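By convention, the C-alpha cell line describes the chain's fold. To illustrate:
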Amino acid sequence: MTNRVGLWIDHKKAVIVSVSEQGESVHKIESGAKHIEWRARGRRRSADGPQYAQAENQLDNQFMEQLKKYYDQVAVLLRGASEVLIFGPGEARTELKTHLARARGPAPTLKVEPADKMTDRQIVARVREYFK
C-alpha cells in the first residue's frame, strides 16, 4: 500500500495530509512551544550580567525540549509513509528533517521545500498537486 504524506509545519502547528488508495485524511498538531525572550529592566539581558544569560539559556533549552516533543508527535503520524513532502516557513521544516534522520527504522523518501503561511485548503491542494 502506498501512503504519501504532505506536511506543512512551523514552530506553532503542523498540518499533516495523508494520501493513500483509500483517500486522504488531515491531522493537525499544535506544538504548545513558546519561545520567551528574557529581558531585564527594558535592556537586553546580556548587558545586565551572566545571571540573565543563564536565564535565557534555560528558556532556550525549555523551548527546544518542547519542540522535540512536538517533532516526536509529528513523527508518529509519518510512520509507514513511503514518501513525505515537508514544507513551510522558517526553520521548523529543516529541524524536523534532522529529527527524522536521527530516528530509527525505515526512512521514507523526504522532500523539503520552503512555503509561506497557508490555509488548510491551500495545504491540501498543494499536497494533492505534488503527489498527482
The chain has a mean pLDDT of 85. The chain has one domain: 3-130. The CA atoms of residues 15 and 28 lie 5 Å apart. Residues 50-78 form the longest helix (29 residues).
